[in-house]
Amino acid sequence: MKKKITLTKYTRSSFLTYGLVIAAYVILQSMVLTGSITSSLKGMLVPICAYAVMAVSLNLTVGVLGELSLGHAGFMSVGAFTGVIAAIALEGIVPMGWLRLVIAMAVGAVFAAVAGFLIGIPVLRLKGDYLAIVTLAFGEIIKSVLNNLYVGVDGDGLHFSLLSDRTGLAAGGRMIVNGPMGITGITKLSTFTAGFVLLMLTLFIVFNLVNSRTGRAIKSIRDNRIAAESVGINVTKYRLTAFVTSAAMAGAAGPLFAMNYSNIIANKFDFNTSILVLVFVVLGGLGNMLGSIIAATALTILPEALRQFADYRMLIYAIVLILVMLITNNPTLAAWTQSARDKLRRAVGRKKPARTPAEGGDGHE
Amino acid sequence: MKHTTMKKMIAFALATVMLVALCSCGGGNGGESAASEAFKLGGTGPLTGGAAIYGNAAKNGAQIAVDEINAEGGIQFELKYEDDAHDAEKAVNAYNALKDWGMQISLGSVTSAPANATSAEGFADRIFSLTPSASAPTVIEGKDNMFQMCFLDYPTQGGASAQYISDMALGEKIGIIWKNDEDYSTGLRNSFVDKAAELGLNVVAESTFTEGNNDFSVQLTEMQNAGADLVFLPMYYQPASLIFSQANAMGYAPKWFGVDGMDGILTMEGFDPTLAEGVMLLTPFNADSTDEATQAFVAKYQELYNEIPNQFAADAYDCVYAYKQALEAAGATPDMTAEQLNDLMIEQFTSMSFDGLTGTGMTWDSTGAVSKSAHGMVIQDGAYVGLD
User: Fold this and answer.
1) Do residues A70 and A130 touch, judged by C-beta distance below 8 A?
2) Residue B119 sits at the chain A interface (C-beta within 8 Å)
3) What is the Cα–Cα distance from B52 to B49, expressed in whole angstroms?
4) pLDDT digits (tens, 9 = 90+) for A114-123
5) Structural contact between residues B75 and B321, judged by C-beta atoms closer than 8 angstroms
6) 3-state SS of chain B: helix, strand, coil percent to 5?
7) In the 8-state DSSP scheme, what is residue A169?
8) Helix B311-330 to helix B338-349 angle, to the nearest 10 degrees?
C-alpha cells in the first residue's frame, strides 16, 4: 500500500518536472521566435540548459547516491574537449550542423563516462570522503592535461602531442586544441532546442534510473550501506552505475556549453565551476531534480540581472545566495508552507497525516 | 518523505528569486529611445577579479576621452562598460547586455580570452569593434569588422623582445619564467624562444608555473643555479610582483625583462615599487613623455583616479579619439544603425592615419591589425624612462 503511494507520488513529481520544463521551453522559444526576448536572456538560454543538465547529473551523485563529488566540471571539460574535437574533425564529412552537435554530445558523454569509470573503479570501493578528494584532484588533473594538450587535424587525420606543439601538421591542416589557448574558432552549433532536448533526456534517464530496481539499490546504499550489503546488493556495482551515468551526462553538457561560444579554454572548467554546480544542487535540494533546474536557472540569471548595481554586483549576489539558503532552511517557514499545503489538501478533500517539517533536511548528509 | 516540504519551499523561494531576476532583466532596457544625439559606445572588460587593473584602466581612459569630446560639442558619445571578470562566458553575457542597451559601436573586450568570444558575436551581429588591448591574433582573424589598438599581438611582441635583447646585448645567459596554463604567457614565450634560437641568444633555463601559484622559490632557484643574468617574464603584473619580492628576499638580482602585461605593476596596491627598479619592458606608451597631449592626459587621469595611467588607459583613450576621427570623416550621425556604422567604420579605419598617445601615423590594414612601433622602457625611481 505504502509503496504504491510512493510510486505514484514519484511519477507525479517527475511529470510535474517534465511539464514545467516543456512549458518553460515553449514560452521562451515563442519569445525568441517573436523577437520579444532581450539579447541578454536569449544569450543565456544555452548555458542555462547546460548548467541545468550539470546540476541534475550531479544531483544523481550527491543527492541519490549520497557521495560528494567536487570535480564535476572535470567531466564537463572532458566532454567539451573531446566533443568539440570530434565536431571539428567531422566538419568535412558531416555537413549537417545538428548532427555534428549530436555526435559531439555523444562522443563527450562516452569519453566522460570512461573517465568516470576509470576513477570510479578504485575509489568507489572505498568508504568515507575519499571520492570528494579524488574527484577534486581529478578535476585539477584534467585541467592541467588539457592546458598542455595540442591536437591538430590534417589530411592524415588527428595528431596529438603533449607539453609543446609537435603535431607537425601538413599544409592546410588545422590546429584544434592549442594548449592554454584552448579551442578557438568553434562554429556555434548549440541551440536552445538542443539544450532543451538534452535536458529532457537527462531528466528521463535520471527519473527512470532512480525509480527502478537499480535506483532503489542505489538509495539503499546511500541510506545504510551495511544493511544493503547484508541483503546481497553489490555495492560497488551500483555506486559505479550511478557515478558513471552522472559523469556521462556531464560529458554531454560539455559540448553543448562549449559550442555556444567561439572559443573554450580548460581553465573555464575549474574548481569554481564544480563548486558552482554543487551550489545549484544544494540550493535546489538534494535529490530534487526540479529544484536543481530552478536553482541553475536562477543563479545563472541572477548575476546578469544585477548588472545595474555595477561594482556591488557580486556582493549582492553573495548576499542573495546566503538569504536564499537561510530561508529555504527556515523551520518556521517550512511549517507555514506545510500547514498551507495541508489546508489545501483538506479543501480538495484528500486526507493526509500531518508531518513534522521542523526536522527538515534529508538526513543522509 | 520529509523532504517534499523542502522541495516545495525551495521551489517557491527560488521561483521568487527568478521572478525578481527576470523582472529586473526586462526592466533594464527601457530608455532606449531617449538618446539619438549621442553615439552609444560599449565595451566589456574585467572590472572585478584578478585582471581588474586592466579593465578599470581601459574604462577610465575611455571615459576621459569621452568627457573631453563631449565637452567640445560636435560628436557626442555615451560610454558604457560592463564587467566580464576575464571570462568568455560572462563576456558574452556582458556583450548581450550592451546590445540590449543599444550599443552602436564597440570597444570590444579588454583581455584576450573574452575578446575571442565577443568578437565572434560582434562579427555575426555586424557591430564594429576596436579593442584597446586584446592582443591575441584570433580576435581579429577572419573577421572584417574587428580592429585592434594595442601595439603588437603577442606572437610579434615575444619576437620583438628577443630582438631588442639581442640588439642591445642586454644579457648573456637568459632565463624564462612563464605561466603554462595561460594563452598570453605561452604565446609570448613561444615566439620569444623561436626568435631567440634564430638570433643565437643563449637561453639557459626555463621554468613554468600555473594559476594560483604564490611561491616562486623553485623557479627562481633554477634561474639562479643556471646563472641567468637576464630573466624574461612573459606574464601579467600580479605574478611578476611576487617574483620581484621573492627574488629580492633571496638576494637574486638579474636584469628583468617584462612585457606589456607588466604595465600596471607600479600602481598595484601593496606592492613596493622599488622592487621593480631596473625592470625593462616594451610598451608603446610612456607616461613620462614630454609630449603635450600625453602630459595633459596623465595629469587628468591622476586628478580623477589618483594613479599614473598605464598603457591600457592610453590605448582606450586613443580608441575613442580614433572613433571620433573616423565618425567625423565618414559624416556619420547617431541615428544610424549599428550595421550602417559598421560599414562606414570598416571603410574609414582601413584608409585613415591616426595620431594618438600611443603612437603617431598609426594605420590599420584590412585584417584589423594596427601598425605602430614599441619603445623599450626601464623603470627608474618608480616611473618609466625610455631606454634609448
Assistant:
1) no
2) yes
3) 5
4) 999 998 888 8
5) no
6) 50, 20, 35
7) P
8) 100
Q: Is B361 left (phi over 0), alpha (psi -120 to 50) or beta?
A: left
- Asked whether B380 and B276 are in contact (CB, 8 A), the reply is no
Euclidean distance between CA atoms A172 and B232, whole angstroms: 33
Interface test with A, best of B181, B209, B235 (most A CBs within 10 A): B181
A148 and B180 within 8 Å at the Cβ level: the answer is yes
Which residue is closest to B179 within chain A, CA to CA? A180
Q: Which three cell numbers stand for residue B337?
A: 544603425
Task: Evaluate whether B173 touches B144 at the Cβ level (below 8 Å).
Answer: no
Among A82-86, A357-361, B257-261, the range with the most confident prediction by mean pLDDT is A82-86
Write out the residue limits of the CATH 3.40.50.2300 domain(s) in chain B: 39-151+292-373, 154-283
- Asked if pLDDT for residue A358 goes beyond 50, the answer is no
Q: How far apart are the first and last CA of chain A?
A: 28
Length of chain B in terms of residues written: 388
Cβ atoms of A25 and A196 closer than 8 Å: yes
Q: What is the pLDDT of residues A158-173, one digit of tens each?
A: 777 777 666 666 666 7
**First CA to last CA distance, chain B:** 78
Residues from chain A contacting residue B120 (CB–CB below 8 Å): 188, 261-263
- Shortest CA gap B381–chain A (Å): 33
CB B97 within 8 A of CB B123: no
Is the CATH number of domain B39-151+292-373 3.40.980.20?
no
Model confidence pLDDT, tens digit, residues B12-63: 555 555 555 544 444 444 334 444 688 888 888 888 877 788 888 888 888 8
CA-closest candidate to residue A176, choices A257, A83, A79? A83
- Cell numbers placing B194: 623561436
How far apart (Å, rounded) are the C-alpha atoms in residues A328 and A311?
28
CB contact under 8 A, A181 and B183: yes
B89: nearest CB among A182, A261, A283: A261
The dotted CATH code for B154-283 is: 3.40.50.2300
The angle formed by the CA atoms of residues A22, A25 and A27, to the nearest 5 degrees, is 110
Find all residues with CB under 8 Å of B89, minimum gap 6, and list them.
A47, A261, A268, B117
Amino acid of residue B9: M
Name which of B83, B93, B100, B112 to mutate to probe chain A: the one with the most chain A Cβ atoms within 10 A of its Cβ: B93
Please answer whether residues B150 and B357 qualify as being in contact, where contact means their C-beta atoms are separated by less than 8 angstroms.
no
Q: Mapping DSSP to helix (H, G, I), strand (E, B) and coil, where does residue B162 land?
A: helix
Give the pLDDT of residue B12.
57
DSSP for B262-324 reads GTTGGG-TT--GGGGTT-EEEES--TT---HHHHHHHHHHHHHHSS---HHHHHHHHHHHHHH
ipTM surpassing 0.90: no
